[in-house]
Structures are given as C-alpha cells and as structure tokens.
C-alpha cells in the first residue's frame, strides 16, 4: 500500500472527478458511511448511543456531516457542532450539511459563551466523538476557535474517531505546532498519510484504519507515489524461498566488527541476530582484549580477535590490515555496534569503509565516525546501508533531533541522495529510504522496543539477510521481521521486553513469511 502527501491526495481527488467522472459527492458519501461504521464499532453498538460530531469548513466537515446522518440511521443520537460557515462550504459539503439539516438535526455554531457551555455539556453526556474539524491542509498554528475546540475534545476524555487525520496534525510531517485531537481511531481516506506515522502525529492517530472510499485503485497505486508501507505481503514477496540443497556457505558468510570495553552485549546481540535470521556462517571480529569474554559467551558464532594493543577498542594500522584481510572472504559486513567513539576507532571505520569491497552495513558508532566527514561517506566504493536512530541521524547532519523530527522524510531523502547511501532510520516508525527517493514505512513495532540493544538486533538482522536475497532489498525484510518479532514479544512482555526477546523471536517472525 502506498502512502501519500496531502498534495498527492488532492491530485488523486481531482483525477477521480476529471478522468473518471465520479462526483465528489459520491466519495464524501462513502467517507461518511465508513466513518460512521468505524465510529460505531469503536464503542460496540450505535443504537441508543450519543455521538458528538464536529465539522469544520472544508471537505472534512462534509465527511463529518455525512457520518452524522449515517449514525442517526443506525439508531444513534447526534449532537452536531460546526466550526465554520455554510456559505463557505464547497458544493459537496454544503449538500451534506443541508441533508442533515433536513433530517431535523440542529447544527450548532460555536460563537457565544452559551454555545461553548452547550458544547461542554454535550461532550459530558456523549458516548463518543467524531472529529471532522480539519483535514490534511493544516499548517502552523491553529485558529483560536479551533484550538479551543481541540482542547475541549481532549479534556472530555471520550473515545474519538478522527476522519482522515486528527485535527491539528500536519499531514506531510506529523508535526503538531500547537495542539491536536488525540484520537483512538483514525480512518484514512484513500491512502494513509505521512503524518500518521511520523513525529507527534503517530501518537495522535491511535489505531489507523484505511479505506479507499471508492477511489479507483489505479490512482492509489501510481508510480508518482514514492512512499509505501512494509507489509507482511511486501516482505514475503521479496524474500526468496530457500532451496533444499543449500549449505552454510551458500546462506552467507557474514562478518561483524563490534564491541569495545563495556559494550560486549551489543556485539553478541548483533552476531546472534545474523544467525537467527538465517545466515550460514557468522564471524564476529572484536578487539583482542574482549576476545575471552565473547568467545566464552557465543557458541555458534566464530569469534576472532583483532589487535588492539590492550586498549579494548578498534584502531591502528595493524588492526585495519587484519580487518580488511577478514573482509576479503566475507559476503557482507556489519561494523559499528558498541565499538565506541575513540578518535582512532572512528579513523579505523573510515579507512575500512573506504577499502572494503563486500556489501556494508554501518550502525551506531560507525555512523558517528562520519560526523564532519560527509565527503568521505559520499566517496565510498559501495552504497552502504546506514541504520541510525534519530539522534545519530541528526548528529551526522550536524543538526538536532527537533529539526529532524519536524521534516524527517524530506531530510532522509536528501541525505540518501547526497550521501549515496540507504538509510534505515529508527523512530516511532522505522523508515527505509533509498538514494533514488523511494521510501518504505514499517507497519510493525511498538513502544516496548525502545530498549537498549534493539538496534543491534536490527543491524544484525539486515546484514544476516544480505547473501540470502538481493542485498539492496534486505533492509525492507529486516525491518519487517525485526518489528514483527518485537510485536510478538510485546504480547507477552509489554513494555518490559528486552532486546534478547526480539532476538529469540526472529525465527518465528521469519517463518511467518514462508
């Protein structure tokens, strides 16, 4: 399934009318009916229940008027509030307004103090709320009336069904400049929007539902849409079936450089993750001082010491020569988990990355090594896969996480193009962005995965797949399998899950794709 910007949906809506001859009123009717059905399902049954429905002055308001009519037909009582003016409504929205009014529904304005008093009383005695105040066109600060209305809805604490996107969320970024409706459910019309997944919008959206509302699917699947969801179907389609006659060598010889004093766990998690996702042979290269710890800890992984002059971290010409010699026999390489930020380690990373020929994944402190050295990143002989979290991504770009949060997809696309790298950026929704601009958003993952070591497991999963399938596609499958394993773990562990829980469930998640 594709993901749209606000302008994409405006273009699609226009094409529905101009190229297919479908009236806007038909789409609005479908949107209203589906909203009513999902709002009713949210609280079990609509019969005898009271819904406070809020409409704004745009097409979202027309959807809200239509939903109110359908809720009434289902046996619900409706309290209808309108934060706009009838004369400013478009033709379709005005028709929905007038049809509801013809049914005898009082469409209440929000002008006087008495109007606001009546609003608060209605909210207190309502069973649920439908939010159709603002649509995908919102940018910046809300008007005072709308901001006040959003505050009243949130303060009421009722179950909220948002139409298309919660009012106050910017559709293209997920940014909330002032305040936004906190929805329990959001029904995306046509396609999901960027703001449903990124930034504060991910929190405001609640459970995301999607309905095509009758839009021809050819419009919803067009090549002009460069963002897609990573679904189970997507991952299963690009993951090849493993032949019966494979052997450990044909399943990938993976080399991982990881660990430093105090960071042996990151090395172990990444190496075991590569094995758990099906790699045939995994070699973990560690600073010599760490070798006894990890050789004792890991049974199935080949642990190799790299000269470190007893420092406990990577660095120096001898270590670089040993590392490149190992990499000459590897099908794919991961460098970074837990390696630390010593100056000589960062230099080691840059020199290694500039010379290694195998497909390369860089995580954590390997990404840190390129801060202030973006020219060196651009000049690498391969297209590396970088797996930063938001802070690491912001640091690489010499900015702050707040700036990145505000426009993550745009900044990720620019970075992928400029650095000629694939970015796997870990946030509320992990995204995979390619140098050509294609972007993929995960449908898996949960708040419990905000735990130390989860990123090391992801990096290991991605590199572990790199000889089992086309290496450029491994981030998509790796992100899905990792997120799905996290979701399975969350069912049992909740917010107490640890990275090891995700690691242990990678095989189950992978098996679901078979």
Can you tell me about this structure?
This protein is α/β, with parallel strands linked by helices. The chain has 2 domains: about 1-225, Rossmann fold, CATH 3.40.50.10260; about 230-235 and about 255-510, Ribokinase (UDP-N-acetylmuramoyl-L-alanine:D-glutamate ligase, 3-Layer(aba) Sandwich). Helix content is about 45%, strand content about 15%. It contains 21 helices and 18 strands. It has helices at about 5-20, 25-40, 60-75, 90-100, 115-125, 145-155, 200-205, 215-220, 230-240, 265-275, 290-295, 315-325, 345-355, 365-370, 375-380, 390-395, 400-405, 410-420, 455-465, 475-495, 500-510; strands spanning about 1-5, 50-55, 75-80, 105-110, 130, 160-165, 185-190, 205-210, 225-230, 255, 280-285, 300-305, 330-335, 360-365, 385, 420-425, 430-435, 440. The strands form 2 sheets. Strands 1-9-18-17-16-15-14-13-10-11-12 form an 11-stranded mixed β-sheet, sandwiched between helices. It has a 7-stranded parallel β-sheet with strand order 4-3-2-5-6-7-8, sandwiched between helices. Strand 2 (about 50-55), helix 3 and strand 3 (about 75-80) form a beta-alpha-beta unit. The chain is elongated and about 85 Å long. The protein starts with a strand and ends with a helix. The mean pLDDT is about 95.
